[in-house]
Amino acid sequence: MNFSEVFKQSNQLCKVSPDGKYLATCVQYRLVVRDVNTLQILQLYTCLDQVASMEWSSDSLFILCAMYKRGLVQVWSLEQPDWHCKIDEGSIGLVSSRWSPDGRHILNTTEFHLRVTVWSLCNKSVSYIKYPKACQKGMDFSADGRYMALAERRDCKDYISVFVCDDWHLLRHFETDTQDLAGVEWSPNGCVLAAWDSCLEYKMLLYSLDGRLLSTYSAYEWSLGIKSVAWSPSSQFLAIGSYDEKVRILNHITWKKLTEFEHHPTITNSKAVVFKEVEKRPVIPTEDLSIQQIAMESSLFDIQSKYEIPPLPVQVPVVKPDPDRANPKIGISAIAFSVDNRYLATKNGGFQVQSLFWHCSGDSVVLLGKDQLCLCYMATDEEK
Amino acid sequence: MPESSFEDINNIYVSSTMPPSRQYSQSTIPLLPFRHYIGNTEFCTENNTSECMLYISQELLALGFPSIFFDLNGLRELDVISALNSMYGLLQMHRRAVGMLAELEVEQLRVSSDLHCQQLTNSKLKDQLELSKKENLRLCERERQLEANTKALHHCLKNEKEEVQKLQNVIASRASQYNHNLKRKEREFGKLKERLNQLLTDKKDKKQGMDVLNYVGRSDGKRSQWKTGKTDSRHESDMYKALLNEFDKHQRELMIENAELKKVLQQIKQEMVGILSPKRQSGETQKEEKPKEFTDQQIASDEEEENSFKGTSEMSCEHAREQLSNSIRQQWRKLKDHMANLDNKGILKHESPPASLVHLGQGINEEMISKEVHQEEMERLKLEIQQCKDFIHTQQQLLQQQLSTPWDEETAAVLTDCYMLEEKERLKEEWKTFEEQKKNFEMERRTFTEAAIRLGHERKMFEEDRATWLKHQFLNMTFTDQMNLKTQNTLSEYAVQEQKHISSPKTPL
Question: Name one GO cellular component term (chain A) (predicted).
């Protein structure tokens, strides 16, 4: 694997454009756009303050830079470098800012989640949406970008509003039967909306696009509930990961549990292959071979590691988290379906894996940890 | 008359001396014959007086009384006095005996009553013992039941405790979650209050607004439309269209899947029919009732089903599905029965060959291998295997013999070495030369190392000498010419020594 030289960036703001041609990074208050292949700087923009969040528009023509402290959002155009746009939220403050799927509207969530302001880049219209809910995943756009689901809370009750992204027309507004709605997610086909309760109650509600309640699923009571949710790309399955270290898969026809997967610390399944990374550090040389020592110093940085396959059963080292703290580091925190619907990757427990993604070809998984990047490639045997 | 007076006296004594107790215990105790003496005629009569007297005297003598006779001229005459004395003695004896008897009777009564008492108490105690044993058993049983109860209760208690512990854990985690949420909300509330205060006190109000150079066109290039009632209904219709499309797609997929499954089922059914019918058609001649029915039924049902299947697209799906699944089930059951029959037939055939062979000859032979034939085949194959093995074994033996036939030693050695002899000789010579060369090299190396060591030593010495010489020279440079002369001498001496040193190592070489 080859690596380029190191580029500076701040706040982990480094994103590739959706069409894959450009790379944008933020360094303090500057926005740098490079070409992906040559890594040459194509554009350089200067913002008014340190950039807190940066996002590409869906058509890769605009970049949004949000500065939360100042309550400002600046939009830059790639085609016209001198085009500028500045959105000032004023005294109401800014907590988060994002693009709409069509790349022409910006949704700003004000401080204290007082309202969501929809700014349009096409016309002078401004829309306001009151009482959005501050939760794990309160806003979700459907895959085709036509509809937006927003979780709201008023009068101690949870509601979901469905908007048409075309003109921000409120299509449906209905109450949900949850104690504390934690998140909403559209299915990839855009016809079913999954809404789940906070971890104090295990409750998954499935609504149709027109607001009808299709089904409710609750695996157990009282113990901590849902931690992570993922739809399969074909919308046939819904995977629910919970704090009891199990993944339950629901099928889209009956919305009943199809199967559940456990995460035992001891791996005994004979079909499982466990790869264990063994680090090999180079030996520090002795004193009299002084010339060699200099050469060795440079190679101390690249630690050789190899993977060995230990025999089953394998005991995975588990760090017992503190159960007294809120949001304990137990349970399934990341689920990802492969693109061809064949595989499911889950992360259980307190492992330092921050994100888990499948490659679009469906045969490799990228795991991003705190200091490490792991790429797992699965080679399938050709059937004769 | 003496006899009657005896009688009267006896009667008197009998009546007076009969103890009262005897009336009670007459049954138990054998009485002494104190009965009323009935008739003297039994013992003594007028004829046998002398014999009676003799007898009485003998008895009295035996009892220790003096003789009641005294001899007078050989005639025994009754001595009345002694007789009366004897009678008195007898009466005394009798009285004493009676007294003793009375005492004994009393004693006996007492003892019997004691015994009776004892028996009563014994039986009472036995009853009591029984009762107490029963009581004991009952108490034991109750104790056992109570122990079982306590064990069950302990178990329940343990379970309850575990559940309580679990619930407590759940409560604790929920409580920590609630606390966390509460704190978060409080913090936000605090921030809100601060902000509100700030806004109220803050004079300048920052305006909210957007400053853009020029508006950009929509991503899809279309113009945006006015918001009217039509747009609302359009949105609704779009949404419903999307849903309907999805439903349609889903339904189409399910229909395709359904059709495929139906095809598969139909195939299975046909295959099953195919397996069953040819066998049965050939076997139609022997067992007429069942198989014929079977095939007829089958053919009939097949036709029916084919007809029905053609019409499935017209009929309701549920009906068709039910029919298909029922028919499959029926076929499967028939197949199972058929297999069972085959098994039985196989056994039957094996047991009674001649009769059934004739009947079952044509039908079953081709497809069904009877057990006998099967076994014969097996035997034959086994035999063949054995023969082959033997053959291989003999071949191997022959080969071995061939390879290891005993030659003469010499010829063997010669024959084996003949091809390599020349090369061996050459190799030996080469080895010899190699060895020699090696020895030479060793020697040379040794000498060289020795020379090197010596050279080293000499060099060291030479260096030392040179150093001292130089030192001397420097020292002597400050002195007068006298010293110069000396140094010159010393110089020459050193030069000579050096020469010697340099020349000496040459000699041993």
Answer: microtubule organizing center
Percent of chain B at pLDDT above 90?
33
Using the structure block, give the residue that is written with the tokens 């060959």.
B353
Whether the bond between A313 and the residue before it is cis, its omega within 30 degrees of 0, is yes
Closest CA to B31 of B92, B104, B138: B104
DSSP 3-state assignment of B304? Answer: helix
CA angle B484/B486/B487 to nearest 5° reads 65
Amino acid at A381: D
Contact residues, chain A, for B205 at CB < 8 Å? 90-91
**Whether A84 contacts chain B with CB within 8 A:** yes
Phi (first) and psi of residue A205, to 5 degrees? -115, 140
B115-141 per-position pLDDT tens digit: 999 999 999 999 999 999 999 999 999
Other beta carbons within 10 angstroms of residue A201's beta carbon come to 19
**DSSP letter string over B376-403?**
HHHHHHHHHHHHHHHHHHHHHHHHHHHH
Taking the Cβ of residue A145 and every Cβ of chain B, the question of whether any pair is shorter than 8 Å is answered with: no
Contact A356, A334 (CB under 8 A): yes
Residue B85: burial class (beta carbons within 10 Å; 0-12, 13-18, 19+):
middle
pLDDT for A286 = 40
CA torsion angle for B84, B90, B92, B96 (degrees, to 10)? 180
CB atoms within 10 A of CB A34: 18
Does this model's pTM top 0.90? My answer is: no
Would you call A107 helix, strand, or coil by DSSP?
Answer: strand
CB contact under 8 A, B208 and A121: no
Which residues does chain A have within 8 Å of residue B251's beta carbon, measured at their own beta carbons? none
Rounded to a whole number of angstroms, the CA Rg of chain A reads 24
**Cα A129 to Cα A121: distance, rounded to the nearest angstrom:** 18
The minimal CB distance from B208 to the residues A88, A122, A124 is found for: A88
Q: What is the pLDDT of residues A288-328, one digit of tens each?
A: 334 444 444 444 445 667 777 777 777 777 777 777 777 88
